[in-house]
Fold:
Amino acid sequence: MVWFWLGWEAWLMARGITLNLQPVPNLESRYKTWSATPHAAPGSSKLPYAYCMPTDCSQVQSQTPWTKLAWGQDSARRDVVLKLVNSDTDEYQVYCRLLQSSEEHCLSSCCGVLRPVAIFETQYNFSFVVMPRWGGLHQLSDLNTVAQVMQFMRCTSRDIHQSNMLVNCYTPNALFSTHALKIAAEHRCAGDVHYCLMDFDISLCASLDTALDSFKRPSNEATMGAPSYHPPDVSLGEPFYNPFAYDVACLGNIYRVFFTCLVSQIPLLAPLFDKMTTHAIPHRFTALEAADFIEYVYAGLSDTTLNMPVAVVPEWESCTNTDLYWSKTAPEFAVQWSSYRTPGQTPMAQFLDRFCNISVGWFMLTFLRRRLRI
Structure:
């Protein structure tokens, strides 16, 4: 892809973006490769930009961006990422709406997604989306206090998979080094750490007046993306599903896999997990309701609790056994919040579940339900 970016280097420079490209030693000047990032301008850490941490000189190395991505700096020497996006896709419309929201609202606020700062349209069927450069999340198991976990949940209570999430801190020329991990650990202890969602390759752009609680899409779309955290919304041959409710459940499954270990310190996580992932979809939290509940939980935590150390260990069984985390709460608490617990399956759902487990049962049920649209 470097040859593609070389062809657009001058065009982008005329628009204030300098790509991190440098000539290859002992070759003609037209041959270039990705270079170590120049030092970012002081003060570029103000949101929506991230902290550019100093790099150990012994570990400086050029890093090749992923396909369709390029690294550069804007006219104020702030590190940015450019992404190639087809102009006739929902992903492009998502970025346009996010850019519009950036113009309508304060850019220095974190809204849980990485909003673009510019979109450069071309005469072809693609555009350059310019976003502030943030750092990778590394591992959720690196979160080591209650406060760090709660801040992560407060920022990500919008969407989906941890590999699509970033943190507002990066070491540009030592992305996967021990030094980078140390810097990231120090930043998580800071009061201004933020996390966000950054990838919209698999996205759907609905009209702004869409009723989120009744929106339906063909169920085959639910199989797209990473399946690890998918809820069973289409496991019984359903012809349609609600993608907004589906996304909430995906995030809820991430929370309960990684944060079940915190329920003994934060009992309110148990009702949160169930309301985000319940199979009774009409009673499932919306993204806004989940975010509000997380803020309610956070507001009730003392400094002592927030500073408690934790060891985040994935517990995959929690996705199928809710007793795993409810058993960590006091009996009177479980009774008090019983209305939030996921109800048992109906007899019909149990029958269909058993039918789907026999040979070709799921395919037969899916065919019938799609033909009858039920």
User: Anything to note?
Assistant: DSSP finds twelve helices and 14 strands in the chain. The first helix runs from residue 2 to 13.
